[in-house]
Design goal:
Blueprint: H1 9-18, H2 22-34, H3 38-42, H4 46-49, E1 50-51, E2 54-55, E3 58-61, E4 80-83, H5 86-99, H6 124-138, H7 147-160, H8 165-172, H9 177-184, H10 188-196
Antiparallel strand pairs: 1-2, 3-4
Helix pairs in contact: 1-6, 2-5, 2-7, 7-8, 8-9
Amino acid sequence: MATARPLLPDEEIKLLAALDRRRDQVLFLFGRLTGFRITELLSIRVGDVWDRGGVRPEITLSRQRLKGGHGVQRRRVRSRTVPLNPQLRAVLQTYLAERFDGAEPVPDAFLFASRTGENRPISRVQAYRILKAAAAATGRPERVATHSLRKTFAQDVFARSGHNLVLTQRALGHSSVMTTARYVSPDEGAVSATILGLGAPAWPVESFTGKEVSSVPASA
């Protein structure tokens, strides 16, 4: 199976517009602006982002809710705190006001709730289908998946940090910078385009007629 790819700026705009439900639009923006994995996003409850009448300035997910937090290497996984930037906070404020009809949001409710069952989030499969259908509507569904949001976040952080790999590693919560490098490494098309764009002196050239350079002694 081909790995998910980051989204291009024009694709992001079209894909977001192709999502019909406000919930799905917020899920897209949350993943794009925090870099959380889809399972981590779907574990978020209203109380994780809302406190005392407003959206929190940051969100913290415990180790148990992160990738690897339940396995044999769980001691290597730490909780992850991510600031919520102003754009995302404004989106959440509007989303929660609409969802709860202006009343105080219910802290225990899942942020991205399913329409079936009582207080349960949508599934990973459903999240994938929603994003894939939106990508198909834009005409470019190839290798677009839920992980595309995290990869787009990674490339954006990498570019805005002046290609600081360590900073990007911290933003993604990776334990190894080698893992981060796979997120931001250019694809083969970009490598080929760079090589094809290289320049060199024009050829053929006239014979060199200047003073010859004396040979350097072998003992030098």
